[in-house]
Please model this.
Amino acid sequence: LSTHCPDCGTAKQAIAMQTLAGLRDKKATAKELCADGAKGLSTFMSYYILKAMSEDNMAAALQVLRDYYSGMLNMGATTFWEDFDLAWTENAAPIDEPVPEGKKDIHGDFGAFCYEGFRHSLCHGWASGPVPFLAERVLGISIEEAGCKTIRLRPDLGDLDWAKGTFPTPKGVLTVSVYRDGDGEVHVAYEAPKGITVLTD
Model:
């Protein structure tokens, strides 16, 4: 399979998958994916796109995450949607308000392919890409041994000052806190359940 790398055009999903499969240069691809911000992002593949972006530019990936998902929240979302494009927000009414005359209906007037009109779900599992992205890339949680017996922490705060989160394991919840001090040095603190070894670099 590695002998053939088809042209992806501008499809960020396909570009990200080729990058993560080792078929594209990570640095070049990160620049390509970040060039126009959240344009072309998809809820369906957001995890892979953000991961590929963050391989070389975590700050840019975090900004795309902010722009795209806050776009949904600003339109009244309380859960993440199956389909979304930032361009839809122009002259559109939030989903939690009646649509006034002269405004677009963010749910009924948009969508693509089989998601046109009211066909797309407003609470969809494939829009949950930020959850593993934040745990794995920002907090840097990596399972090193089956059953989470050994977990490695390699956080990347990008442009953040701090991040904190929890991660479920078979032995209980791992809590990780990462912060940058006044000198810019990153510090990691954690509380791990008994029976789990945590490695930090």
Remarks:
- DSSP finds five helices and eight strands in the chain.
- The chain has a mean pLDDT of 93.
- The two ends are 34 Å apart (CA to CA).
- The longest strand covers residues 172-180.
